[in-house]
Amino acid sequence: MVRDFENKMHLEGKSEKTIKIYVASVKEFFRWFNDSFGDVEFKKLYRENILEYKSYLKNVKICKRTGQNLNAKSINAKLSALIKYNELMQPDNIVISKADLIKVQAEIISPTNITKKEVEEFRQRVLQSEGCSAKRNYAIVTIMSYAGLRISEVLHLKKVDVNTAASQIRVADGKGEKQRTVIINSKVISAIREYQRSDNVKSDYLFHNSKGKILNPSTINKVFDEFSIDGYHIHPHMLRHFFCYNALESGAYSINEVSNQAGHTSIKTTLKYLNPNLEQIKKKSELL
Fold first, then answer.
1. Active site includes 241?
2. Domains of the chain with CATH codes
3. Active site residue 116
4. Of 84, 208, 240, 272, which one is the catalytic site residue?
5. What is the pLDDT of residues 256-277, one digit of tens each?
6. Residue 9 CB coordination number (10 Å)
7. Widest distance between CA atoms in the chain
8. What is the tens place of the pLDDT at every residue in 192-229?
9. CB–CB of 191/185 below 8 Å?
């Protein structure tokens, strides 16, 4: 069933990333079904099961990263996969729709919760790790911090996409399969050039493994796990948040320029970074 679902999403033109996420979420639902109902064979989606699963996600399921219950966005992402499964696998019997998603109040707080000092400390820890991958990993985290690329975009960069002489990176396969040109500063240029001087492996990819193949995201996630300090875990997307917030806060870029650099589909996403972050809100509350 899952394989049929995957094939139908391919035919519908869904991106590989979306397909991977949806398949993982549907598999998670099936694991819950098996754990809940034992040897009873799954035949189709029932409204009753959907409501029980939604309750499980809200009240029982624990996020491994935070140790807390899932937030609304995480729950909605899992439910969205089931909505798509319902549409493609049993279109004549719709039992879950967008009306079942949890309503989320629009955020008035910037998603950025990392400071420039913390970013710089993290980059330096990565650089000082020495080892054969240190320069590669340092260049990767520098691109995310000061060019705002998504981790998937960084890992899919090819050598022909990077022009340090012109201070440009071409993102050939961005979110929604959109291409864009990103301007890079001297920090990014220096990090890339130093890495390239030490890179002796033949590969089309800018960042690759020892065999010249594209890096697995789990490889970079391990870097973040290793060099985050105790009690404060930094994950890749935090560096992208930092770039957007820092670019606007410093006055270096306009809203439209940040939106273009980051590849935001809607400028509304960029506007969130004009709001104060959580720590600033907390400080303001003490002034009351």
1. no
2. 2-100 (1.10.150.130), 116-284 (1.10.443.10)
3. no
4. 240
5. 999 999 999 888 888 888 776 6
6. 20
7. 63
8. 999 999 999 999 999 999 999 999 999 999 999 999 88
9. no
